[in-house]
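User: Hi! Is it possible to get a structure for several chains at once, not just one? Here's what I have:
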Amino acid sequence: MTTTQSASAPLLEDTILEPKAGGLYRHQHAGTGLLVGIALGFIGWLLSTSFLQSNESFGSDMTTTVTMVSWVIGFNIGVGSFNAPIRWLLGHDQTHHDELYAAGVGQGWKRYFKFCTDHKVVGTQYLVLVMVLFGVGGTLAMMIRTQLLSPHSTFLSPETYNSIVSIHGMVMIIATIIMVSGPFANFVMPIMIGAKDMAFPRLNALSFWTVVSAVPCLLATFFLGGVPAGWTTYAPLSAQAPIAMDAFAITIITFVVSVTVAGINTVVTILTMRAKGMTFGRLPIFTWGSMIGGALGLYAMPAFLIAQSALITDRVTGTSFFVAAQGGTGWLYENMFWIMGHPEVYVILIPPVAAVLEITTVFARKPLFASKVAIGGMVGIAGLSIMVWAHHMFTTGWAPNLGGPFMLTTELISIPTGIIFLCLIGTLWRGQIWTRLPMFFVYLFLWNFIIGGVTGIYLSDLPADQYFHGNMFVTAHFHYTLLGGAMIGAAAAVCFWFPKMTTRMLNERVGKVSFWMIAIGIQITYYGQFLEGFEGMPRRVANYDPQFLHANLISSAGAYLLMAGWVVMAYNIVSSWRSGEMAGANPWGSKTLEWQVPTPVPLENFLVEPIVVADAYGYGETPQTSTQLGEGHR
Amino acid sequence: MKKFAWAASALILAAVLLGAVGLGFSAQTYQPPAGVVIARDLGRTILHGKSYHHVSLDLSTYPDSSGVQPDGKPIHPGGNPSWPAYGPSNLFQVPANSYVTMTIKQYDSGEPLNNPWFATVAGTVDGTATIDGKRVHQISADHIGHTFTMRGLPGVGSKFFLNVPLPPLPEPLVANDAKHPRIITFSFISGPKGRYVWNCEFPCGQSVAGFGGAMSAYGFMSGYVNVV
Amino acid sequence: MTLIDEQHGASATGGHHESVEDRDLKERIALWLFIAGDGVFFLLQVFSWFYLKGLNVHGMWRGAACSVSAACTLGDGSDLTHIVPKAASWHSLTVAGLVILSAACIWQAEVRARKEQNRGETVAWVSLGLVTLIAGIAVLCLQFTALPFKTISGTYASVFIFFMGSVIAHLCLTLFIGLAVWNRLRRGSANLKWQLQLRLARVWWVWVAFSGAVLALVSTYFA
Amino acid sequence: MERPSTAHIVRGILLLTAIMTAIGVALGILLPNHIMPRQMSADSHAAVMTVIVFSVAAAPVAALVYAVGLYSLLRWRHKGAEQPTIDGAPIRGNNAVTTTWLIVSTVLVIFVLGWGLTFLSSAATPHADPLEVNVIGQQWAWSFQYPGTGVESSKLVLPVNREVHFHVSSKDVTHGFWPQELGIQIDANALQSSSISTTPDKLGSFSVRCSQLCGLYHAYMQTKGEVLSQKNFAAWLQANGASASSASRVAVVAQGRAHS
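Assistant: Yes, the chains can be modeled jointly so their relative placement is included. Here is the combined structure:
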């Protein structure tokens, strides 16, 4: 139904709220979250030290766990995550004005520091958080590369080095999981499908603030003795680790909550909140990517949850899931971990890949090539990815006879992945290649992801894997896919949607400088690491045989250039955000819905309910000006 | 152009921040108060008709790293009472290809090894060590205080491997200042120039397999030997 | 842009008109997705049980460990002192029974609500369901105190206690939902949506009863 | 903008593809032998061969993708920063192309899989009279036992042209037993023995490194190995405390049972 309301109706954000609208929310923001979190954390620490410390073997682990859990709960109480559930329990449902307040009406910039249910605010919050996390992860990466500048370097002690390696890994994994599904699946996706918000706005805010509460636990590990076990935290090594490991586990458990609610939210939104006429056939590819990624996360994360819960019970209560002396086995952890681990790689990859396809259609001014096949490809990747986990365990000896089957499933994945490339080059074919900044990153994605894919085939085959497993070749391979592929796809997405999210254009010239630094940096860095791998340097070593020196020098040099590139890009984002030239509603002449709404996007996005009459890829078919909108929309 | 100037300054700022963080992490490395202990020069000695530069090193293994050594110096500042530690330092320096005589005073108690093999003396001159005056090639794997196990970093002295088991004190006598510590003496020919690593292979830490705690924290039962 | 009419109660950011049925559809899909995720967690618990039992590393599936795991040394098997006794089966089975019972009550309540729109009877059935649920939790806590082994007594003990922990967690979440539904029905604040919410609660309740029962059977008959 | 004939475009793209394939194949054939360690067993040879063959097989595919990307840049690039005034050709798909693509990639996958399975089966074939070696990992050192001789060593010494069965286990956490030049790798798991076997076919020394992060001194958990002639191997066993009889019994392949 199209409302006949005139468009000059007052915007929702101009509603005059009742004086007490929002209730407790009025007094809650990140600051109170911090206060309550610290307070509760301190109380938890006090109680546990006084009552549990007596237990010699587990006392300190109990204390750490209790403290971290109290902090997480306290922070979420303070920021307002639990207001609505409690009110629901008590039967005092939020009124319309309460919800408008929660959506940020009448709070200006302050709403970015509150438990805000507006999907655009959450998306922006995510964007900033992701940039901060990448800053942290990148800093740690620089520590690693600096240590490896000389074979027997003493810059870091092996202890510090190992924990830096672990935390670099985990920070980057968390950041890459949320780097597209956070900012863009939240800000852009609902508008793309013609929705007014996500299906569960409060869960949306919850998913963000839980990550925020988890990050301090992760960084606290540096002050609790460090996590020496790598981001995989293989047991029993992680069962042996200092109390920092408990903080790590709490981080993961909290993060699992975040990804789960975010995944549910995304899937439900796309299934139920599409505008009139937005059939599945007309759904833009990026929304497909978000949905598949979200659904896959729902499958993957519980495995991580049980792995880390079992680990923490081993450490805190002395159970023995992973301690061989008491009947446990590391194989159990490794299975649980990789049942999560491999799907999780595609939770990271699929949304950016979909974003890249989306962007390609706009800058090639062409319909997406074989869009149904592309969707099939992504579904195929997701489906296969849950059957391949044991290829990470070819050399663990847990089940020698499963080598064949898992080789099969693993190599099958290269078929749907190949389809993605077909759709990409098919879309470029005979296009009008408009080489603006996002397109630069699309081409870089194309280049890197091929390399990442091909090197993956070596690893999927046993004879080569017996040599490459656990060596720098693997490191280079997954950095080419996750950084060179996924992160570059996310960079393209940032450049593409920046005008819509911030109302300003990203500076093109500075952007191109950062692009070339990043592009060249990646090639040098990981060429060096491939070389280390071929020559036989193991992963995660603080010192190495001088025979690997030249390869490490290459890699470190490239890494510095790469980091510099990201810094320039970050600077560009910040400065353009503050003072970039204003962008119109649709600077790229795109046909997807998010570009048809005014910029800045009003609360609830659409002044008039849209009616969709075509998919967003009618380039060259419908005239330039027209969009996928029907006459219902101005 | 102005934008690029700002970008450059952003880069400089980032570099400064990275440097600061780097220094912070670097400062986390444990620095023993005694610094690098340099082996004492004892002139030259003849072994199998070959003349070697002769040096000696004196170490001790204490049950309580938070305590002090007989000379009153702290063993391991900020150490944990239930964690053992080597003293006076965890960093040593010996000349290359020379005859090194090491004397270790063992003040700690003992238990069985994870891997009985480390109860065997390996890599010393004629494969023996002298424990309280008796020359032995092997001691009981069920009663080990600590071990002193040393080898080269990757690419250094690949032929060099040294392992000497240290017998325990009986439980009641254990103390940082026990009157009669077990005294273990042994000699070995140091390898070529380079950086070597030493550690204890006896599970004297906490947690799984006794290799957590002191064993996994750099500076207690682990360190480096610079061969110059 | 039509603003919301208050009868329709909670809606997303409030601004848009959302029918109770739309809301219910979203919540139902979300619930099933959540159950799917929880199902993975559940399957992995069962997997750990049989994997550890099958591997029986170091003969410690039901072999008692040394007093504190921190002191455990590897290799010689000297930690193996005696065989861990099985936990009494009646606790687990009673808990399972009670949870199934409470699920049945909620089911009844939902039927009452849908068929007869009878708020009074519905509240009664929900209350009954809550009571049985709380009884189940009580028995579970009792079982914790009555276990013939400790957390450090090998893998059988480990997984057994882990099962109990996960069941407790699920029951507490269910209790929260149950209390909310009960309270809202009582106060009448679950206006138009009350039997729809009840239906959601029922779905979750049945899943918890099913998974809990399976865990109880596994840990009782496959020790 | 002029629309060149498809044939014309295809010719251009194929040319680019051919050039890049040539480069890829050349690198794929030349580099691995050059930068990977000395091959001292059939397994390490298989590893290098796999890299070479897969590189050659993957080169055309990668080259094609790159070629289309490059060609589209060179030929269809829209000059200038402002939005193109005309759109690209409204091509929504091409079943023939898609099908061909699918068939080709499936064929490649089958080939790659077959390659791996053949290796698996060849690795499974048993040999007569293998040498048994127990590999023991612990934080942070390797030790190697030679059952029947009482010899235990920190170096891994092996006879040439004789199959070796490694029984790999760990005393504490998970380690990765990785004798690089022998091209095999398997984890050492606490209290669990895993087996792997290989047949060294060249004399000389190789490095054994730990491939699983195992804590503080993971980086230093490495040692040297050496492949000796069977005579020297027996001598080495004796020099390390084996009795003459046990040394010869274990070290020397019994008459007639020797292979290659």
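The first helix of chain D runs from residue 6 to 35. Residues 35 and 48 of chain D are 10 Å apart (CA to CA).

User: Great, thank you!
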